[in-house]
Structure to design on (1027 residues):
């Protein structure tokens, strides 16, 4: 791991918080920067291991090709059920403040 | 003995014989909750009315001679299991008012077996923690000594069961979270093979690590429940097509002479003397009972398990918690607690552009190496044994200021989750101060039968479960 | 004014988003057919992103994607997987979209376009991948304030994405390519690609460079969510003009994503600051990877129908059609199949299939009323009928009227609409050979006579 990854700075933490849609106070940013840096230091040891010829594991089961047959549709939630826990709704829709930016 | 202190096995016998009713059994649990839970805080939600109604129905069925597997038995669900119509919080303010529209597969199977839902148990919010202190609804206390933690993250399930508030309590084990509370509370708790039990309806922490399971008082109870909750459900695509054996029936089969592996990397750790002594005594006892030998083995990549785990798991967490945007349900992302925020950010960072190769991808490869370590060892031994926790249960507040210290205590337990293999926690005794100690028996994928057999043999000879905390 | 700039040419890549018509959604069992349904009536814990829900992939959607890849001449890699594309947006319930990143179902390939009479050009395909669609956002003013309303009926409907290389060099090629893909997916039967229903949408990538330049420009403008050929063309035309003017003025153009205003038919800069998205792709741990055995690819390949070009060549050869006729008749597979059946019967009846072709193309006969065989017989028979004339038809009319005395009475009592019923019966009796006009004339005469039959 290169040394650029060693020390996490507040700017990086702010960007990460943005990506994760977390609003942090200045105090929280400072606190998390310190804590995350300490934790990340511990990860340096991974660089010691030679993994050049090693495949990565994202499925410990070794399973492959698990799919379902397309067929008669199953039972859906009634719209009242779907909306039951919504903080804001309007005429069968979930409601949020106006979004104008495209994704 | 009070009704709520029975095992499932004993309670079923009594119910079928008509010695007592399910209503009486449930009342006994509810009484214990009323008496002790304001201090212990094992429960977030107690379903008193619903439970008694279900118990009355169960009694009707019992009178008709219906013999469902868990008919009339009061159980509790860790508040990560969604329960239709019953508030499910994940231990967090984010979901403080969330009422799910469906049941988790595990919940559905318990209900189909006739179990009574007593309530939802407390936990480290989202499963993030090993002590029970990260709950937004107050820290749970260990019934054995209420100044101590019960272990986490299935803290409430451990405490509720140990305190006699129910006869079984579900949990999830992503890095330790069934085994640690089982160990700290004198209970049996198994982390099953990843893919043995459906994750559908279990609020996700780390998708490739989460293992839903149950804490029980005895190995016999554990086997009975495993039969009910295991097996494919058509909703979780990560479950191999593995037949569900008759776990109860194989319990009393001979284990045969055992090759027991003791990894030097586990026993070299700073293990508390009392813990080490009790575990070694238990291992010797097992050898006495079954025959066998200790074989020193090595899991050379153990020291990389912690960083591997704490890169992969937060990465998956950061993605799994993205759905909590407060639009379809929940109170919004500013209600996340510190530990959740920390893990989300750690994970987001590890996955972000420029860091993916060095962190996430690297950790995925280390994962392969750790998995291979176990496979190599299991070609030489039948099972691995080790303490579940290197330390005795600790006091509330002892580790909360140092997140890293908390992470480091997972060192003996998280490699098992990295490899996706099963591990059974057995009570093996008590410290001088009366705090429970547990040992884990680790096996290869889908070797639950072997672990249960060994556990049963040991349990029959030692009966630690008969000791109860004073409530 | 800048010194003489070389003539500029557009460099265009196209992304096509296609909703597959499977019965169930991509990762859950909700119905996939969502157009026009009441909001949030076709959701479940999975496509709503409820806590604890898990995805389970639809086999047919995967195979349809591979089929499209094969039809586009792509390579089907042995290993494929799904990945999570992480970003926040209200129409994305899980906060990530299950998509494919580095191991999609199909790679490489190309589509041959006819650009002038005998000139062909291949537009290379970069990849074909499968993902889930998002929910839908509508904007409303409620109580004087702006809100966005979300409907998740579309969430997790299977969506195929076809991405081309930037090989498209003109508006003509762009539209021709779009239309060719549209035709292809309909031929394959994987989607009706009804653009009014949003089943096919385009994303345009366009930049400008000097004509002699072979390098790719260092910027690219994206215009998303174009859901008709008209809008695609307008967006491309506007961008060509806008970018050319900017470059001539000496402006440097940057990577950007622009919106399209459907009323004004222009593109516009987006309000949000353009920050490179960090989607933090990683393998979807809830779905095991795919590993294709040879036998599975062979089986899917068998599903490939004869494609339009091959069919055109064959129609010209076997049925002696000219290229224009062959092209018209092979535009839609259902029509081509209809024609072919009729043509085969025509050959049997020693009738020139070209006559059938012309009848269909010129709409002289309502093909909806006839089966292909009836059509062939009718056209062959008309040649005969013209010689025998009215007497055969008269006999048929009398036969039918004798069969339905009750209806004749009701007609005479005023139910004159029954004339259609009689015509229908006569057509049936004659197996389509009777001429509707002659039949009607004779019928009316017979029906308006008091006695008779």
């Amino acid at each position: 791991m290169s040394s650029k990854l060693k020390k996490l700075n507040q700017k990086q933490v702010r960007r990460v918080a943005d990506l994760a849609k977390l609003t942090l106070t200045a105090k929280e940013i400072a606190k998390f920067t310190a804590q995350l840096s300490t934790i990340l230091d511990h990860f340096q040891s991974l660089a010691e291991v030679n993994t050049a010829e090693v495949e990565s594991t994202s499925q410990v089961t070794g399973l492959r090709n698990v799919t379902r047959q397309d067929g008669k549709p199953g039972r859906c939630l009634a719209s009242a059920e779907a909306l039951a826990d919504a903080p804001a709704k309007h005429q069968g829709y979930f409601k949020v403040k106006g979004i104008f930016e495209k994704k | 003995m009070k009704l709520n202190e029975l095992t499932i096995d004993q309670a079923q016998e009594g119910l079928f014989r008509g010695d007592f009713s399910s209503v009486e059994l449930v009342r006994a649990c509810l009484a214990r909750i009323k008496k002790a839970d304001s201090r212990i805080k094992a429960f977030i939600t107690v379903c008193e009315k619903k439970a008694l109604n279900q118990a009355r129905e169960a009694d009707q069925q019992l009178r008709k001679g219906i013999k469902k597997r868990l008919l009339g038995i009061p159980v509790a669900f860790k508040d990560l299991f969604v329960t239709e119509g019953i508030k499910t919080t994940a231990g967090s303010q984010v979901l403080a008012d969330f009422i799910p529209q469906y049941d988790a597969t595990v919940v559905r199977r318990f209900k189909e077996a006739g179990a009574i839902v007593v309530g939802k148990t407390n936990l480290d919010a989202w499963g993030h923690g090993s002590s029970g202190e990260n709950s937004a609804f107050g820290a749970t206390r260990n019934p054995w000594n209420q100044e101590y933690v019960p272990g986490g993250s299935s803290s409430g399930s451990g405490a509720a069961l140990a305190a006699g508030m129910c006869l079984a309590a579900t949990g999830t084990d992503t890095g330790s979270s069934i085994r640690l509370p089982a160990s700290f509370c004198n209970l049996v708790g198994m982390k099953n093979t990843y893919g043995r039990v459906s994750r559908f309806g279990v609020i996700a922490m780390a998708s490739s690590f989460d293992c839903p399971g149950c804490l029980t008082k005895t190995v016999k109870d554990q086997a009975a429940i495993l039969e009910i909750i295991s097996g494919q459900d058509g909703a979780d695509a990560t479950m191999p097509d593995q037949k569900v054996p008759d776990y109860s029936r194989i319990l009393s089969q001979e284990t045969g002479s055992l090759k027991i592996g003791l990894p030097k990397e586990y026993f070299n750790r700073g293990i508390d003397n009392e813990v080490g002594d009790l575990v070694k005594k238990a291992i010797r006892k097992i050898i006495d009972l079954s025959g066998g030998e200790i074989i020193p083995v090595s899991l050379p990549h153990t020291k990389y398990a912690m960083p591997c785990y704490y890169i992969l798991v937060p990465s998956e967490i950061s993605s799994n918690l993205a759905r909590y945007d407060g639009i379809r349900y929940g109170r919004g992302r500013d209600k996340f607690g510190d530990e959740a925020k920390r893990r989300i950010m750690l994970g987001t960072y590890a996955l972000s552009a420029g860091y993916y190769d060095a962190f996430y991808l690297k950790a995925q490869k280390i994962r392969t190496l750790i998995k291979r370590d176990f496979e190599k060892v299991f070609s030489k031994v039948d099972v691995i044994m080790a303490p579940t926790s290197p330390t005795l249960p600790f006091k509330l507040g002892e580790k909360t200021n140092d997140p890293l210290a908390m992470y480091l205590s997972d060192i003996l337990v998280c490699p098992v989750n990295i490899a996706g293999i099963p591990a059974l926690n057995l009570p093996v005794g008590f410290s001088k101060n009366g705090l429970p100690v547990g040992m884990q028996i680790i096996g290869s994928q889908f070797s639950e039968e072997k672990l249960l057999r060994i556990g049963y043999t040991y349990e029959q000879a030692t009966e630690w479960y008969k000791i109860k905390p004073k409530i | 004014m800048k010194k003489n700039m070389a003539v500029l040419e557009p460099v265009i890549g196209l992304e096509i988003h296609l909703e597959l018509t499977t019965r169930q959604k991509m990762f859950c069992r909700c119905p996939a057919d969502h157009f026009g349904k009441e909001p949030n009536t076709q959701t479940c814990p999975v496509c709503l992103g409820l806590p604890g829900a898990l995805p389970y992939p639809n086999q047919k959607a995967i195979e349809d994607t591979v089929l499209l890849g094969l039809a586009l001449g792509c390579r089907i890699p042995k290993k494929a997987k799904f990945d999570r594309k992480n970003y926040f947006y209200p129409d994305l319930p899980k906060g990530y979209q299950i998509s494919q990143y580095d191991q999609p179902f199909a790679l490489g390939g190309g589509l041959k376009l006819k650009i002038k009479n005998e000139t062909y050009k291949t537009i290379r395909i970069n990849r074909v991948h499968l993902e889930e669609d998002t929910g839908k956002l509508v904007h409303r003013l409620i109580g004087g304030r702006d809100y966005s309303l979300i409907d998740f009926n579309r969430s997790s409907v299977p969506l195929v994405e076809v991405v081309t290389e930037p090989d498209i060099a003109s508006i003509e090629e762009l539209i021709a390519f779009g239309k060719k893909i549209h035709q292809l997916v309909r031929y394959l039967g994987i989607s009706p690609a009804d653009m009014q229903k949003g089943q096919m949408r385009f994303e345009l990538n366009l930049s400008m460079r000097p004509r002699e330049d072979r390098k790719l420009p260092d910027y690219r403008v994206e215009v998303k969510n174009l859901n008709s050929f008209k809008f695609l063309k307008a967006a491309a035309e506007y961008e060509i003009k806008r970018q050319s003017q900017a470059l001539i003025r000496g402006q440097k153009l940057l990577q950007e994503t622009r919106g399209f205003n459907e009323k004004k038919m222009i593109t516009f800069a987006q309000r949000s600051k353009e920050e490179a998205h960090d989607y933090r792709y990683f393998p979807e741990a809830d779905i095991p990877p795919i590993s294709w055995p040879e036998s599975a690819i062979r089986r899917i390949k068998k599903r490939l129908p004869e494609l339009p070009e091959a069919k055109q060549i064959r129609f010209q050869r076997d049925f002696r059609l000219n290229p224009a006729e062959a092209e018209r008749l092979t535009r839609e597979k259902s029509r081509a199949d209809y024609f072919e059946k009729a043509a085969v019967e025509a050959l049997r009846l020693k009738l020139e299939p070209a006559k059938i072709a012309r009848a269909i193309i010129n709409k002289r006969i309502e093909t909806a009323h006839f089966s292909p065989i009836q059509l062939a017989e009718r056209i062959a028979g008309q040649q005969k009928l013209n010689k025998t004339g009215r007497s055969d038809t008269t006999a048929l009319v009398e036969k039918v009227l004798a069969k339905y005395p009750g209806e004749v009475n009701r007609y005479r009592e005023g139910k004159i609409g029954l004339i259609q019923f009689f015509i229908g019966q006569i057509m049936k009796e004659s197996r389509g050979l009777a001429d509707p006009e002659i039949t009607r004339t004779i019928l009316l005469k017979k029906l308006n006579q008091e006695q008779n039959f």
Remarks:
- The mean pLDDT of chain C is 90.
- The radius of gyration of chain C is 29 Å.
- The first helix of chain C runs from residue 59 to 71.
- The domain at 389-453 of chain C is CATH 1.10.10 (Arc Repressor Mutant, subunit A).
